[in-house]
């Protein structure tokens, strides 16, 4: 005679249950192997059973059925993975099974979402899962991860200290480059880690299982938040799981004698500040998101106050600042912030926001490291805000963040895509050229020919707009560059430039200094092609005052040098080498 699973409410044979679940006294907490593996939670059975041997079918519909967790491999977008794989050489192969790349729709795509480069690091998800979790004595090379996991359990059961981060890293970090998996592979491996913990026998100490269940669930929520394709199903899954952790797992952790008090408060604060707040906001419930953020802030403030003994150091000042920033942003979106005042007040508010953003970026680098995902997020935010006050500084920071994120996270990671957007915004240099029958037409500068003193111009980003007055002209120039003499080009506001060729005199020390255009002066003897008498330049070096410079001594810089030049002004009076922006 079979028994009913409290997850799927199906009558199943003994083989479908683990021995522990089959012998469970509470019929409302007896789950089959499939429900346990997919983390389908128990739902109380209808009161229609007289005893264990008399089974009456449960109703077809069960109220409040929890969301069904998908298999780890289902979090991988195979079509996208094949498109990414297609750009790599044909000899790319899985480092575990050695099978070479196959782009057919029936094949398993090779994946690589870590810091490995060249042909290394590619693997099938199922191969990674097997490498980590197999217990087969006949494949000792594949037992490395399993043996490491068993060692951690043995040491912990003997009274040793367990580091959950080290344990999670077995699943979620690449064993070749030791960096965390990102994107779909990061989400899939965190789901695999969560399922592994659910199935792992951790007797006799069940406190250990509760602790690792909490850590694995939190790791999976991080994977959902950082997913490349954050669709509605992910948001709903994250919302339900975070609420489930709050109601079921967190109370067990708070009672556990295995988990230090400091870690208990951190877990609760992270759950509220990172997960409950994030998924509530994505679901449109800003009030719940703000409430969760405020709870996280309170917990971090307790930790920062020294009210409880700390077993290890942590930068709670940074965490408080990050949570408060999210709260302020959500309140602003709700319209709960103070209404904007006069222009002077708005300018002052912008300065406050910029200073706050810079501090958050500095705190992120101090707390998580210069190349952490948190630091990149705060850095991109700061670069975007900085554009309003200094396009040169903004462009330098955006360029660095974009280049570093490509190297660390890869070109398809969401933070790289975001950094690229800010990089393109800050490095876009536009000029206007006068046409007799059209007036001034805007172009983007991509190069400069020193010998001819001409800019290489292409249509701007707005060229695709069919309603643009110059759309027909731009259409003719697609894929082409127009070379126009520098004196015929009128620079737009906030264009990065370098000053050169100033004669000996009071302005001579401005030669070879980098800055940006702010305003321009009109010439009394204007012509249709050139009516600019000077540009007001705001210099990158804050010790230099703004200065009016003749247009012939100003050169656009679409690609900034990596650092400010150190050459003294009294030795530079010639134009720099010609450039082409690639």
In short:
This protein has 582 residues and is of the alpha+beta class. It has 17 helices and 13 strands. The longest helix is centred in the middle third of the chain and has 26 residues, at 343-368.
Structure notes:
With 582 residues, this protein is an alpha+beta fold. The protein has 17 helices and 13 strands. The strands form three sheets. Strands 3, 4, 5, 6, 7 and 13 form a six-stranded antiparallel beta sheet that branches. A hairpin with a 6-residue loop joins strand 1 and strand 2 (11-12). Helix 8 (206-225) runs parallel beside helix 10. The model is unreliable at 45-67, 336-341, 564-575 and 578-582 (pLDDT under 50).
Rg over CA atoms, rounded to whole Å, is 30 Å
> What is the mean pLDDT?
79
The string of secondary-structure elements, in order, is: EEHHHHHHHHHHHHHHHHEEEHEEEEEEEE
- Segments where pLDDT lies below 50 for 5+ residues? 45-67, 336-341, 564-575, 578-582
Major sheet: size, sense and barrel closure?
6 strands, antiparallel
Task: Give the % helix.
Answer: 40-55%
Produce the secondary structure layout:
Elements: E1 3-4, E2 11-12, H1 19-22, H2 33-37, H3 78-85, H4 125-133, H5 144-157, H6 164-172, H7 183-199, H8 206-225, H9 232-255, H10 261-282, H11 286-305, H12 316-334, H13 343-368, H14 373-386, H15 391-409, H16 414-427, E3 430-435, E4 439-449, E5 454-458, H17 471-476, E6 482-485, E7 489-491, E8 496-499, E9 514-522, E10 532-539, E11 547-549, E12 554-556, E13 579-580
Antiparallel strand pairs: 1-2, 3-4, 3-7, 4-5, 4-13, 5-6, 8-9, 8-12, 9-10, 10-11
